[in-house]
Structure formats: structure tokens, C-alpha cells
User: Fold these one by one.
Assistant:
Number 1:
Amino acid sequence: MSNGIFEVRFKSNRPDSGGGLVVIKDGSVNGGDANYLYQGNVPTESGKFSGQFKVSMWKPGNTNVTGHDNYTLDATGEINYESGTISLTGTVVGDSRMRVELAGNRIISAV
């Protein structure tokens, strides 16, 4: 099953962290939290991946863990659909000093 709703937790190399939900369906990743949206792509089969993820503010009111309101994360990671886990690390395009780590677990299969 390559589809699911995942709870994700993330942190940066700043003293900040956060969490949200992402829906992975047929390789597309769409999710968000109270102030930011996340979009990108992952493989439809379990394994390692690399790619870019767009993070966009949709509602003001909270600071992003990177200090940037809108950015692209250049990331590498691994997804395991059988165990329902995803992890990645990446840097902000245009600010390579800023690193983000993400870990997530599938809550339920997506329909």
C-alpha cells in the first residue's frame, strides 16, 4: 500500500521543531500544519529517494522552523510503506546552512 496519511515531526538546526500531517497518494505528497503547506513527491515503492519539497506559508501567525516563510527543501530520505515510516534530511535552497530533519509514521491508509 503506497498511500497513507502520515504524522510528521520535524526539527531544524535552529532551536525549533514542529509537526503536521501529510497525505501520500500515488507518489504525491501534500500536507501542512496550522500555518504552512508542504508539497513534493516520493517514490511509490519503498526505498531511498531524493527530491525537492515546497514549503509555503498559507496563514501568518507562526515562525517556520527554518526562519523562512516560503522555501524549497532539497532533501534525501527513505520511505517504507510496509512499516509505515518516512524520514528525510535536507537543506534550504539558497540557504544551505539551514538543515531540516523529518520523521513520520503512517496513521491510516489514504483512500
Number 2:
Amino acid sequence: MGGKSKGGFIVFEGIDGSGKSTQIKKISKRLEISGDNVYSTFEPTDGPIGSLIRQMLSGKVATDQRTIASLFAADRTDHLVNQDNGIRMKVDQGEIVLCDRYY
């Protein structure tokens, strides 16, 4: 349509095992076929902070709820503004970001 398309941010919410990841894969393929640039992501992320959160939630690393809450906030901030793959940058570049969970 003659110009850079606007990006978008679409979040999928639901309980574990409800099909969020499956739907993201299907919609991602459909959007890519339509010529859209798509970036799929999830929370907690697979970055260093998100990985630590996952270890805490699985019981591999002992912690307390306040620590986990603080780490979730830090992970979300990095997820949004990271210079390599942050959501804000991806949307600004015209990509459609599909996210499995987001607050």
C-alpha cells in the first residue's frame, strides 16, 4: 500500500494448556502468508530474568513472593524496551507482535 505498515501488539491470555501457543502459531503463519512481519514472544521471557523466574516457579531456586513479583516487573520492562528484541522496537519497525501472556 505504498509505505511502511503500522505494527501491532496482540496478546493471548489463558490458563496453562488452553491453546495460546497453538493459536499464536496458526495466526502467525496466516499473517506471514498475508505479507506481514510477525514476531512471537511470551512471558516470562527466555532472557536471563525470565529464566530465573522459571527456575523459581519450578522450585529449583528458593525465593519469596515479593522477589518473584519484583523480577516479573523487571522482566516485563526488559521485554518492552530491550534494544535487540523489545516489543516497543518491533512494533515501531512495523512488525506485528504476538505475545503469550502480558500484563
Number 3:
Amino acid sequence: MTLQWTAVASFLYVEIGILVIFCLPFISAQRWHSIFKWSIWNHLSQFRNKGFLTMIIILIVLFLDALREVRKYSSADQTKDAKLHPNMFDHMHMKLFRAQRNLYISGFSLFLWLVMRRVVTLINQLAVATSTSAALQTQTEGANQAAKKYMEDNELLKQALTDAKGGGKIDNSEEIKRLKKEVQRQTEELKSSKDALNISKSNLDTMKKQTEGLTKEYDRLLQEHQELQNQLDSKDKKDI
């Protein structure tokens, strides 16, 4: 095996090893994402795309060269000539075997190079999606706990007010005051949320109106362009 095909075979083995490491189940996508965010990769970012494309071009050239060798040594004329001389026949088969081996090595190297790039992209996307999902789940749990707490406070306040209307004695007046303040605070938060929602709706309506205006303007310009084009075509026909 020549030096160039030894290098391609070594590159293929390295690709297989890296992909096997990527497939290890005990290394999470977040861990790989943190590794991919090391500062050394930021320094190499300007050469990363160029190196990727350069390697693709080299592997494609080697693949086409190996394909040419396979077609050369498997042609019918070469086989007929080789059958006349046994030693030449064995030599031709050895050349054909090497060409096929080089074809498989370069082809799989090119394929795994593309697969490895795609796997790295998918790992980064999975890590980001997992982090976002965890953050949303935490926010949802916090909102559920707050909602449960508010419901419990409201139930206590309703019970206390019911007892007060029924003429019962209320010993825990401080608790009632606290609950009233809590209800007032929740009412203010609800009002502020409602105001924010109204502002968002008004902004959305404004954006819709702007979009409709831009659409009408685009249609008008398109119609004018079509009219000018028709006039230009008619003028060209008259000149002819």
C-alpha cells in the first residue's frame, strides 16, 4: 500500500473510532456540547469549514482515481490479454484487488466524513433542545407550585370570610389581613399582566396594519412594473 492510501486508511480508522466514541451511551449530549464550546475550537473556527471542504475534495479525487483504476483493470481487453500469460493474469488480479480496496477505503472515508459532520450538528442541536426543555419544565413546575399556593390561600380567605359573615368569631385576624394583602397583590399582578397583554395585542395590530400596507405597496409596484414592461415590449415591437 502506497503512502497516500496508507494515510487514507488511517484517516478511515480515526473516523470509525470517533464515531464509536460519539455513540457511547454514558456521555451525554450536554457533555459533548460543552466540549465543542472549548476555546480551542473557537480559534480553529476560521479554518474548520475550509479544512472540511478541502478534505472532501481530496477524498473525491482519490475515489475517482480508484474508480478509474478499477475500470482499467476490469476491462475485457485486459482480461483477454492476461489469460494468455498466467503470471500476467495473477498480476492483473492483484492490481484489480488493490484498486477495489482503494475504492472502498476512499468511498467509506468520504461517507463517514460527511456522517461525522452531521452527527456533531445533531449532538449540538440535541443539547440545546434538552437544555431548553429542562428550563421550560422548571418554569412550569414553579408556575404550578405558585398556582397551588394561590389556590390554597384563596380557599383559606374564602373560608375566613364565610365564617365572618356567619357571625363566627375569628381569632386569627392577622392571618386574614395577610390573606387580603395576598389577594390584593395577586389582583395587581393580574392587572399588570392584562395591561401587558393589551399592549402586545395593540403592537400586533400595528404590525398587521404595517404588513397590509407593505403588501398593498408591493402589489402597486408590481403592477407598475408590469405596465412599464408591457410598454417597453410594445415599443420594441414597433421598432422592429
Number 4:
Amino acid sequence: MARKTIAERIAQLDAQKKALQARQGKQERTEDTRRKVLLGALVLHRLENAADHEFSKRLGDWLRRELPGFLTRDSDKTLFADLLGHTEEKIAAPPPQETASADVSA
């Protein structure tokens, strides 16, 4: 069996390094997603089942203030419509604009 040249060994080590970096990146993304899911689960649990009603109210008020500015996609806003106190129609379509027409009631 022929020995590998130094250049071949360096190339092999570089490939191993890239594979390990890819695995590390995937693991970090998985952990980040898990943290977000668990944190969200805690928040929802505290909103729905908290013994401290004042804390739950303050948390809900804070979320209703902060979430609309944080969520950018309509589909994300729809996910939180119940929490924000909106119906899907209010989120999906902007409110109709008033026109400058005269009132014609009889």
C-alpha cells in the first residue's frame, strides 16, 4: 500500500474539517430551534395555566404590544391571531379606507 502524500493528507483533513463544521452547524441550528420551542411552550403555558393571574395578564399585555411589530409575515400573524385578539380577516386584509363621499341616508 502506497503512503499518501502530504498534499493528499491535507486534502483529506480539510474534507473532514468541512464535514465536522457542517455537523456542528446543524447541531447548533437544532439546539437553537429546540430552545425557541421550549421557551414558546413556557410562555404559552404561563398564559394559559398560571396561578399568578396578574403575571399572566402582564405577560399577555406585553405580547400584544410587542408581537405585532416583531411578526412580519401575514402567515405568522395568523398563527398568533388568538393571542393578539384579532380575527384572521383583520390580519389578512388591511382595514378598508374611508372615502370622502357624502352620507346618503334617507
